[in-house]
Automatic annotation (TrEMBL):
InterPro entries: AlpA, DNA-bd_dom_put_sf, Prophage_regulatory_activator
Name this protein carries in UniProt: AlpA family transcriptional regulator
PANTHER family named among the record's database cross-references: DNA-BINDING TRANSCRIPTIONAL ACTIVATOR ALPA (PTHR36154)
Originating organism: Roseomonas acroporae
Signal peptide limits: none
Length: 72
């Protein structure tokens, strides 16, 4: 099964970041880099974006406090 490749427009829609922010984060090493397909065409692997989103979500998840009761 082939992996789905995303255009920049698809990536910005999915992650909620603008083009400049994505490229700035790529430069800082905090966002997945795209594949170079030739002729100036780049695409991101959908799995790379999903993995990045999952890690970001896990990072923002609050730690349970000691003695806290689970929500009913």
């Amino acid at each position: 099964m082939s992996e789905r490749l995303l255009r920049l427009e698809d990536v910005t829609d999915r992650v909620g970041l603008g083009r400049s922010t994505i490229y700035r984060r790529m430069g800082a090493g905090t966002f997945p880099r795209p594949m170079q397909l030739g002729g100036g065409v780049v695409r991101w692997r959908e799995t790379d974006i999903e993995t990045w989103l999952s890690a970001l979500t896990a990072e923002r998840r609050p730690e349970p406090t000691a003695g806290a009761r689970p929500a009913a």
